[in-house]
Design goal:
About 65% of the residues lie in helices and about 0% in strands. It has about 550 residues and is mainly α. It has a single domain, classed as Sodium/glucose cotransporter (Up-down Bundle), CATH 1.20.1730.10. The strands form two sheets. The chain has a two-stranded antiparallel ribbon. A two-stranded antiparallel ribbon has the order 3-4. The longest helix is centred in the middle third of the chain and has 39 residues. Helix 5 runs parallel beside helix 11, helix 5 packs antiparallel against helix 13 and helix 9 packs antiparallel against helix 17.
């Protein structure tokens, strides 16, 4: 009952309201003469320095869902949940050079989305449209999962009602507030809130990592309790150590997730808002500090086992493992500090949800609205369309949580990773080479997407008794192997995507099939702050094809 959590609720509401007020104040923070431009509303003026970018990108990548779902995975399955730690370590060296090239070419041409880049690089509206739709579809369930994090906190505090709408009324109110200040302030709102969000999370985790062992008999006792639990679990892949059944899944999931992370449009939004190339370089060097925090957060799952936490139930009777961290704080910490922890999770949902909705709205505006609906749209009309679309995206995410099983939303996020990986050849490789034929890239995207969806369809979810789309771990036995091992669907799908794109490029080049030109030049990929911008690419591709350079 909520009456047993009055102090927690009071602390949560005070901090949540205070941060929401900060979101509206952000409209006047570094306010330009005209906010009605995507460079200003959607990218914060492209003028964020090292500290703001560090908090913004970190606040975007390490979400409320991370706070509750990674420990929940360790609570339920053990060591396999640690995949989130190595992938956030290996990603930064991988994208160090990629992101500075993306920033430079976007700075020169005024690109706002990755689809903008693809449109100019390959002179292909069709390929750009596919990239835009892929980004929007992959982002939607990710936004919904931020609501799942808030809902886990509200359920723990007993702030629920009877019936579908009443049960979700607090989330509806929270996201209405989020929609309002995102509409008015744009990217400046999550950039400003990220300072508060990250500070709260660091304080909560650093306190928890010392206090919990004290209460539970030390880390040795915590790991022993987790080991004892998994020894009684019949699942072959569960345990505090990886085994032969889950090692391949762990490796491919970590690598695939690393490759997918900065393909998400919201990840690139924070990068494109940076002032110059040096800001990005410094951030790629400093952001691994968040991975240390993530490792500490993950250990809360084992602490919940040692504390004998029993998850709350979903409406369908299944366990809601996302509640184990809020329940852990509720059981072992003073009420006031539990309220601070709940606020950290709730506010941790606002920053990424705002950036994700802005990124998805920008994709729609630049690559669907302007390309196909209103080619002569003014900057002000683009900004208005993007602001309205950001409201629609949030509404769609809210519908996911209110009317769809939360566990299905989690599975959809795993599917989202498989989907966004199929943009890797055009977006990531396209920054380094123009060799791949635009027709081959479209065919590779279709092959990877088709195979990925087929594989995902074959995976059941034993916990929810659902026959299809139950996760992203594909059994090798389905490929005819005599094995109990599984592999990450996204890894297989993107390998097939790349293979098809490469082979078909050879065939199309040999057949001299017409390819598009390239609106970018070599120097664009090394431009820095102060370099003059060029005019954006025309709305339709240039009629005369140009022979592509093999390496830019």
């Amino acid at each position: 009952m909520w009456r047993d959590h009055q102090l927690e609720i009071a602390v949560f509401v005070i901090l949540f309201v205070g941060v929401s007020a900060l979101g509206f104040v952000a409209a006047r923070w570094r306010r330009p003469d005209n906010l009605m431009h995507l460079d200003e509303w959607g990218l914060g003026g492209r003028n964020f320095g090292a500290w703001i970018t560090w908090f913004l990108v970190g606040g975007d990548l390490y979400t409320a869902y991370t706070f509750v779902a990674v420990p929940a995975l360790l609570f339920a399955s053990g060591a396999a949940g640690f995949f989130a730690v190595p992938y956030t370590v290996i990603i930064y060296p991988l994208v160090f050079l990629v992101l500075v090239r993306m920033w430079s070419v976007s700075h020169r041409h005024g690109f706002v989305t990755p689809a903008d880049f693809v449109r100019s690089r390959f002179q292909s509206p069709t390929l750009a449209l596919l990239i835009a739709i892929t980004g929007i579809v992959a982002t939607m369930p990710y936004i919904a999962l931020q609501l799942v994090g808030i809902e886990a906190v509200l359920k723990t505090m007993g702030v629920t009602g009877e019936g579908t709408i009443a049960r979700h009324l607090p989330i509806i109110i929270a996201f209405a507030i989020l929609a309002a200040y995102t509409y008015s302030s744009g990217l400046r709102a999550p950039a400003l809130i990220a300072f508060v969000k990250d500070t709260l999370i660091y304080v909560v985790i650093l306190v928890a990592i010392f206090y919990l062992p004290y209460k539970l008999g030390g880390w040795g006792a915590i790991f022993d309790a987790a080991d004892a639990k998994f020894d009684k679990t019949p699942a072959p892949g569960d345990g505090i150590l990886l085994n032969a059944n889950n090692q391949l899944q762990y490796i491919t999931l970590a690598l695939g997730s690393a490759l997918a992370l900065f393909l998400y449009p919201h990840s690139l939004t924070g990068v494109l808002a940076s002032r110059n190339r040096d800001v990005i370089k410094r951030n790629m060097s400093a952001l691994p500090a968040y991975s240390l925090l993530l490792g500490l957060i993950a250990l809360l799952g084992y602490a919940a086992i040692a504390a004998s936490i029993t998850p709350l139930k979903n409406p369908n009777g299944t366990n809601d493992n996302n509640t184990v961290v809020p329940l852990l704080f509720d059981k072992l910490f003073p009420d006031w500090f539990a309220g601070v922890a709940y606020a950290a999770i709730g506010i941790g949902a606002l920053v990424p949800a705002a950036i994700m909705s802005i990124a998805a709205a920008n994709l729609f505006t630049r690559n669907i609205y302007k390309e196909y609906l209103k080619r002569d749209a003014t900057p002000a009309q683009e900004a208005t369309a993007s602001k309205l679309m950001s409201l629609l995206v949030k509404f769609g995410a809210l519908v996911f949580v209110v009317f769809v099983d939360p566990q299905f939303s989690i599975d959809l996020q795993l599917i989202g990773g498989v989907i966004i990986l199929q943009t890797l050849p055009a977006v990531a490789l396209g920054l380094f080479t123009r060799w791949l034929h635009r027709g081959a890239l479209i065919a590779g995207w279709a092959a990877g997407m088709g195979l990925g969806m087929w594989m995902l369809y074959q995976i059941p979810n034993a916990a929810t008794k659902r026959a299809h789309f139950g996760g992203s771990a594909f059994p090798l036995s389905e490929f005819g192997f005599d094995s109990t091992k599984t592999i990450y669907v996204g890894f297989v799908a993107v390998v097939v995507n790349l293979a098809v794109a490469a082979l078909l490029t050879v065939v199309l080049r040999a057949a001299r099939v017409q390819d598009g030109g390239d609106d970018t030049v070599h120097a664009d990929y090394f431009a820095d702050e102060g370099d003059p911008r060029v005019s954006p690419a025309p709305a339709s591709p240039a009629p005369a094809p140009a022979a592509p350079d093999p390496i830019t």
